[in-house]
């Protein structure tokens, strides 16, 4: 693949990554809101740990993108890895949101949507089954 095409795909990967960050921002707002209204059944440190884990993991993905290290991977978009990380972070959050847990599980579908057109059927099946 020539460098111009590679750069184009890398810009597209960055745009997708930044779109995913909107979902993380919404999740951070939900965590803070549930904590403020007493619906978060964990300590302040646990609530903060959710946000710090999210920022940390996304910082690693961002660094991999801007340093072009992701281009060495079989899946340079890191879609499967990002879906698994997001699902694990959501599962960790669901432990503490009490009665909101049922409605919050719909976020799994939003996370999985990022892989629908990017992953093969087999890979998508593996990633989707890991969220169950």
Can you tell me about this structure?
The chain is mainly α. The chain has one domain. 72% of the residues lie in helices and 0% in strands. The protein has helices at residues 3-36, 44-66, 79-94, 101-104, 107-113, 121-131. The mean pLDDT is 92.
Summarize the structure.
By secondary structure, this protein is mainly α. The protein contains six helices and no strands. It has one domain.
SSE order, one letter for each helix or strand = HHHHHH
According to DSSP, the number of beta strands is 0
Biggest pleated sheet? none
* Structural Rg: 16 Å
The tally of domains stands at: 1
Helix amount, in percent? over 70%
The helix count comes to 6
How far from one another are the termini?
37 Å
**Strand-residue proportion:** under 5%
Form type: globular
User: Which secondary-structure class do the elements indicate?
Assistant: mainly alpha
Quote the average pLDDT: 92
**Subunit arrangement of the protein:** single chain
Low-pLDDT stretches: none
Features:
132 residues; single chain; mainly alpha
List strands and helices in order, with pairings:
Elements: H1 3-36, H2 44-66, H3 79-94, H4 101-104, H5 107-113, H6 121-131
Helix pairs in contact: 1-2, 2-3, 3-5, 3-6
């Amino acid at each position: 693949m020539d460098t111009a095409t590679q750069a184009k795909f890398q810009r597209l990967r960055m745009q997708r990554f930044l779109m995913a960050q909107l979902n993380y921002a919404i999740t951070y707002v939900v965590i803070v809101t549930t904590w403020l209204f007493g619906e978060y059944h964990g300590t302040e440190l646990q609530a903060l740990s959710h946000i710090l884990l999210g920022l940390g993991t996304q910082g690693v993905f961002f660094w991999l993108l801007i340093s072009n290290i992701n281009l060495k991977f079989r899946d340079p978009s890191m879609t499967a890895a990002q879906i698994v990380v997001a699902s694990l972070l959501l599962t960790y959050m669901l432990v503490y949101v009490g009665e909101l847990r049922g409605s919050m599980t719909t976020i799994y579908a939003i996370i999985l949507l990022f892989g629908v057109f990017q992953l093969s059927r087999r890979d998508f099946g593996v990633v989707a089954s890991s969220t169950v």
